Amino acid sequence: MTTCANGTAYLFSYFINDSRDGLHLAYSYDGLNWTALNGGKSYLLPVVGKDKLMRDPSICQAPDGTFHMVWTSSWTDRIIGYASSRDLIHWSEQRVIPVMMHEPTAHNCWAPELFYNEPSQTYYIFWATTIPGRHKEVATSESEKGLNHRMYYVTTKDFQTFSKTKMFFNPDFSVIDAAIVKDPKNEDLIMVVKNENSNPPEKNLRITRTRNLSKGFPTKVSPSITGNYWAEGPAPLFVGDTLYVYFDKYRDHRYGAVRSLDHGETWEDVSDLVSFPRGIRHGTAFAVDASVVETLIANRNYNPLIPDNLADPSLSKFGDTYYLYATTDLDYGLGRAGTPVVWKSKDFVNWSFEGSHIQGFDWAKGYDWVNDKGEKKTGYFRYWAPGKVIEQNGTYYLYVTFVKPDEKMGTYVMIADRPDGPFRFAEGNGLFAPGVEGVDSPFIVNDIDGEPFIDDDGNGYLFWRRRLAARLSADRLHIEGEPLTMQTARQGYSEGPLMFKRKGIYYYVYTLSGNQNYVNAYMMSRESPLSGFVKPEGNDIFLFSAPENQVWGPGHGNIFYDEKTDEYIFLYLEYGDGGTTRQVYANRMEFNEDGTIKTLVPDMRGVGYLSAPQETRRNLALQADFRASSEKAPRTAVVDIETQPNDPLPEKASVKKYTRTHTYQAAHVGDESNGTRWMAAVTDSSPYITVDLKEMRNVGECQFYFTKPTEGHTWRLEKSVDGKHWQVCAEEKKLQARSPHVAKGIGEARYLRLHILRGDAGMWEWKIYE
């Protein structure tokens, strides 16, 4: 990992979209190239204020290492938000600082900023407020009529008690967005402010300076330091002796910067030299020890687990390898699924697959059939909800749902000599459906979601949809006796069942509801896998949506026991943005002393490494700049989610509306997140994506994690030293279903350009190594 020679790195706090998404962070080592942390996801969602916003987050690190943050919590409140953190990941309870409650006619409290004054060991909090009739009037446009801002402030030493609110900066113009930086050379304090006058419009940034903060800043300010564009949200930062001021070119929907090499005397626009995460809005730039950034990078989100759209996951470990089996989603609805594959990993973080483990099917081919009403239909073979693969005497058993083109379905037993297949039907040699030749293999049960369980005594059991269960035969190919119905405390439609055992207790887990309102409930027994089940004390619904953590509808999943750490991990599908856009998430489970399951609050953090990392090389993509031939328009889902109290009961559930927007920007391929991706516009007939490594590199390997990878891709990779002259350096001419696709031996290049020739025009991640 590259850091500055003096051990300093830089962070930028910011918001995106409508600011309800909360706190975002980016990092840089040079002040020019800024990379989003946490996969571009929020670290903290707002919960205080009338509008529950988190605009303009300003962060200041205390001498004891604590990070303090204030922010705009509403458009019209007379308060600001406050929280603190030791690591920028875990935050204190959010509080309100009522800075203008004594002014009943105050319109707002906008863009609060924090500054620690070393001589007095005091924090200054300053912000912009309009109080009608209070100050010299300025000419305003009709759209901004009544707004005439001035800067106010309070001081504090402990964020518990605060001074009375006083005037901070009162020039002869409407002023907002003040920010202070200390000049390391002469100890001056330089303040950047926005001239907010609107008639005629100024909308530019100016500076003023002082040696003594307690005496305030001169109201005579410099000429504009920004160009012929509207700018706001200044964030000043010294990188060595160079002073940068970053700002929002809000009419241009991009971020810009100016810099001074003489401590604020003269300025040059360097907007074309800086790169920021897409969508960044007003925040704060500040220096930290490089170890802070390294910790944030290491503590990235590990959910989603797999770079693909998957559902109904099951996980087994054989030898030193994890094998994940799942339903492949293609966003075509339940009427069609993707090619089934087995994802493999040595460390639980880096996953790959090579081809399909199920042969003999054309999953993309439609077959005509006629229903009972004489209507002509077209259907597809579908592979759904594979159960946990078990091994017996060197044979691997897979219980999986097949849906035929005529919509008939059942759970079938397949066997293989290896955990990644190829698997074959245990009896017969194929599935028969109208228009398809083959011998009909018998199903083990005439329903979906078959899940096996092998007890300590070697007896086997199968559980499937609608709470049904039966004993397995010794050869694991049939059920014995009549199926029975598992008795559960809650009724209603149920699917995705599973059984596991811990410390002599059997746990039967079943789902309720569906889509964004999936929940997982359970029963407990000390008798057997089929009898003696009772409702646990307390909360029997242990997993449900956590929209505050950006997790919707945690549904059909499976439990993996990690013998090495004695941990139980729940893998489950996450709803995505509707239909069949699901992904696999994983979180650790916890248990009470009596064996009951603690409520599992799902999150984006996930599990992380379960074994030594298999990839230790530095990924150059994390600080590279990506551009694409086109980008698909954002996709927004609006859903009603039933939020559950601590002891959820259906009659207590309240419903709230949530909005989730997925964007498909080129920059997503370099954020090391399996939950963001670039996708080309549907009208783009020649899609490509380009990366600028910022300097010449000897590139040894590229890994491409395409969208819809199970359907196959062909591609061509080019390299360039100047971005103008290109040379082909690698290509895949044959349609290959794998992830990742790998190109090696690229050689010297600054720019790389990947053309997607066949296959889905999108990519989850592009990893680049020397």
Could you characterize the architecture of this molecule?
There is one protein chain. The protein has 770 residues and is an all-beta fold. It has three domains: 8-298, Tachylectin-2, Chain A, CATH 2.115.10; 310-588, Tachylectin-2, Chain A (5 Propeller); 621-769, Jelly Rolls, CATH 2.60.120. The chain is 1% helix and 43% strand. It contains one helix and 51 strands. Strands 42, 45, 46, 47, 48, 50 and 51 form a seven-stranded antiparallel beta sheet that branches. Strands 26, 27, 28, 29 and 30 form a five-stranded antiparallel beta sheet that branches. A hairpin with an 8-residue loop joins strand 40 and strand 41 (583-588). It is globular. The chain starts with 7 loop residues before the first strand and ends with a strand.
Spatial gap, N to C terminus? 13 Å
The low-confidence runs, each spanning 5 or more residues with pLDDT under 50, are 1-5, 645-650
Shape: globular
Number of strands: 51
CATH topology of the largest domain: Tachylectin-2, Chain A
Helix content: under 10%
CATH architecture classification name of the largest domain: 5 Propeller
CA gyration radius, whole angstroms:
29 Å
Beta strand %: 35-45%
